[in-house]
Fold this protein.
Amino acid sequence: MPVLIHFICAALACAAILLLLLRSGLAWKLAVDKPNSRSLHLAPIPRCGGWGILPVVLFSSISLAPNWLRFDMGLALLALVSWWDDRTTLSARARMAVHLVAAALILLPPSSVSWPVTLVWFFAIVWGTNLFNFMDGSNGLAGSMMVVGFGTYAIAALGTNAGLATVSAALAGAGLGFLYFNWDPAKIFLGDMGSIPAGFSMGVLGYYGWHALVWPAWFPALVFAPFIADASLTLLRRLARGERVWQAHREHFYQRLIQSGYTHGQSALLWLGMMIATAGGALFLQHRSGVELIAGLVLEAILLLVVATYVEVRWKRFLQAGLEHDS
C-alpha cells in the first residue's frame, strides 16, 4: 500500500508543478523545442518535463533511500548539465563526458563486483542514460515508457527491497504526471533535463536490483526491450552506413511509423502495448529458469521482430508510393 501511495503522490506532485509552469508561462522561459527538418511536431513546445520529474524523484530518493547518495549526485549532475544543454547546445563530447562521470559515480570502485561485470553495467548505464532522449520526440512515448517500466520495477521489488520499490514507484508516478501533459497533442516534452536523468535511473535502478538479488541481469533489458531494441537497431544501422550517430535524425522505428501515416497517439499505443507485453513477460519470468525462461525470452524476441518487420514493410511501401507519385 505505501508503494501505491508514493506512486499517486508523485503523480499529483509532478502534475501540479508542470501545471504551474504552463499556467504561469515559465515553461516557455525554461527551454523550448523548436521544430526543424528532423522533428515530428510542427509547433514550438516547452521542454520542461524534467522540472516536474526531478524534484519528485530526488525528494523520494533522499527521504526513502538515504544510502543512495551516489544516485542522487548523479541525478543532480545530469539534470544541471542537461538543463544547460536544453537552453544552449553542448557538444556531444561534453555530454558524453558527463554521462561517463555519472555512471562512474555508481560503479567505482567495483567492490564485490568483478571488473568485467562492472564494465558491462557501466556500458549499460551509459547507454540507458541516452535511451529516453531518443524517444522524447513523439507524443506520449517517453511518458508511457516511464510509467510501465518503472512501475514494473516497483512491482518486482515489492516485499524484497523497500527503497528500490518506493523510488521506482515515485519515478513511475512522476512519469504519469508528465504523461498527462505529454499525451497527443503534447503540451510539453521531457527535454534533456528530464530524459537524461530518467534514462540514468533506468540503468542504475536496474543495476541496484540485480546487485541486491531482486531480479536477474536480463530483467531490466526485457522490461524496456521495445525501446532498447528500437534505439540499438537504429544506431547499428546508422553506424553501418558511416553516419554521425550523435546527430538528430528521423530513422527510429517509431518515427518511421508516424511518417508513414500513424498518428502520434496510435504510435504511442502500439509501443505501449509492446511495453506492457515485455514488462509483463519480465515479471512472469523473473524467478523462472531453464526451458521455461528460454521459451519466454524467445517469444518476447519474436514479438519485437514481428513489430519491427511490420514497421519496415510499411515504411518501404510508403517510400515506394511516394516515388510512384513523384513519377
